[in-house]
TrEMBL record:
Protein species of origin: Coptis chinensis
GO terms, molecular function: ATP binding; protein serine/threonine kinase activity
Full protein name: non-specific serine/threonine protein kinase
UniProt catalytic activity: L-seryl-[protein] + ATP = O-phospho-L-seryl-[protein] + ADP + H(+); L-threonyl-[protein] + ATP = O-phospho-L-threonyl-[protein] + ADP + H(+)
PROSITE patterns: PROTEIN_KINASE_DOM, PROTEIN_KINASE_ST
Keywords noted in UniProt: ATP-binding, Kinase, Nucleotide-binding, Serine/threonine-protein kinase, Transferase
EC numbers: 2.7.11.1
CDD domains recorded: STKc_IRAK
InterPro entries named in the record: Kinase-like_dom_sf, PRK1-6/SRF4-like, Prot_kinase_dom, Ser/Thr_kinase_AS
PANTHER family: LEUCINE-RICH REPEAT RECEPTOR-LIKE PROTEIN KINASE PXC1, PROTEIN KINASE DOMAIN-CONTAINING PROTEIN
Length: 354
């Protein structure tokens, strides 16, 4: 099925076709080497990769074989084009091998599309835990895990230190870390929450982001009263409820911090070391993975009790595994001031042998 027909299937107002809405608009390239136009994109074969409160994602294959990921956002926000344009073009300038590239976008009154490079090997969650409905899979060897950790750290360090606005991701988790053909990681969904809010997302997501924006405004007012400098940062803000990847202080602290991403990265490292999900079943209750690992250490349990059983076979890597475990726990400290920066974490990981 073509992309235009698929989009039509999911339109709320079935009295209009996509062609009626796009004739006065065009695809806006963010990659100067873009080799296709809107007509080619809409005629391309496509199928749904996933749906969420933040839109539908399609895998699209052009006639020449180029594969893309296209995210369709909400149908609102018709009066906010300039705001959307400013945000999307800033995100489009981000170029890093470990961050998914936004190649183009499309805006009309009723359609907003984001066109990304397609990353072919699934996501990190599936690589750690296996795909849903699939009973068997091959676990990642330690050297592959370390390579993925290093790539994520480099991508985050770039966002934090070297991007134009020293951005924050704000919703980092294994599901939005995509893996390439050679298992190299690509951080996805960066800046998506803000764009979805402008374009018109689900009511739940919108109300969550509105609350977040109001909190930010209140924080700015407080800073002005205190004559404190404020830093412009972009937050993803796509998670409507608490997640074990969120830093503890994010529930009550108004101003977003890069240390939130550091905490999320620490949880991801613990997942990759232990092979466990971010919530661990302990008897009849659930405990977040950070606390579970801390209790194992406090109880002086052997390393093998924490490790993914598959990694326990790689006894010659124990020293490296312990080193990464220490980094993970440093990242996941309750006090954000004690967490290291992503740049120092990346440098530390790069010094590992694997």
């Amino acid at each position: 099925m073509s992309l235009s027909k698929l989009i039509f299937c999911f339109r709320k107002d079935e009295s209009e076709t996509l062609s009626e809405n796009v004739e006065h608009y065009d695809l806006v390239p963010l990659d100067m080497q873009l080799g296709f136009d809107l007509d080619e994109l809409l005629k391309a074969s496509a199928f749904v990769l996933g749906k969420s409160g933040i839109g539908i994602v399609y895998k699209v294959v052009l006639e020449d074989g180029l594969t893309l990921a296209v995210r369709r956002l909400g149908e609102g926000g018709s009066q906010r084009f300039k705001e959307f344009q400013t945000e999307v073009e800033a995100i489009g300038k981000i170029r890093h091998p470990n961050i998914v590239t936004l190649k183009a976008y499309y805006w009309s009154v009723d359609e907003k599309l984001l066109i990304y490079e397609f990353v072919s090997n699934g996501n990190l969650a599936a690589a750690i835990h296996g795909k849903a409905g699939v009973t068997s899979y091959t676990p990642l060897i330690w050297s592959d895990r370390v390579s993925i950790m290093k790539g994520i750290a480099r991508g985050l360090a770039y966002l934090h230190e070297f991007s134009p606005k020293k951005y924050i991701h704000g919703d980092l988790k294994p599901n939005n870390i995509l893996l390439g053909e050679n298992m190299e990681p690509h951080i996805s969904d960066f800046g998506l929450g803000r764009l979805a809010n402008i374009a018109g997302a689900s009511p739940t997501l919108q109300s969550n982001i509105v609350v977040s924006e109001k909190q930010s405004q209140l924080q700015q007012q407080q800073q002005q009263q205190n004559n404190a400098p404020s830093e412009v940062l972009m937050v993803n803000a796509t998670t409507p409820s608490w997640s074990p990847y969120q830093a503890p202080e994010s529930v009550k602290v108004l101003k977003p911090s890069q240390k939130w991403d550091v905490y999320s990265f620490g949880v991801i490292l613990l997942e990759m070391i232990s092979g466990r999900s971010s919530l661990v079943q302990v008897g009849t209750t659930e405990m977040d993975l950070v606390r579970w690992v801390q209790l194992c250490i406090e109880d002086k349990k052997p390393l093998v009790d924490i490790l993914d059983p598959f990694l326990a076979r790689e006894s010659d890597k124990e020293e490296e595994i312990i080193a990464v475990l220490k980094i993970a726990l440093a990242c996941a400290q309750t006090n954000p001031e004690r967490r290291p920066s992503m740049r120092s974490i990346s440098d530390h990981l790069d010094r590992l042998v694997a």
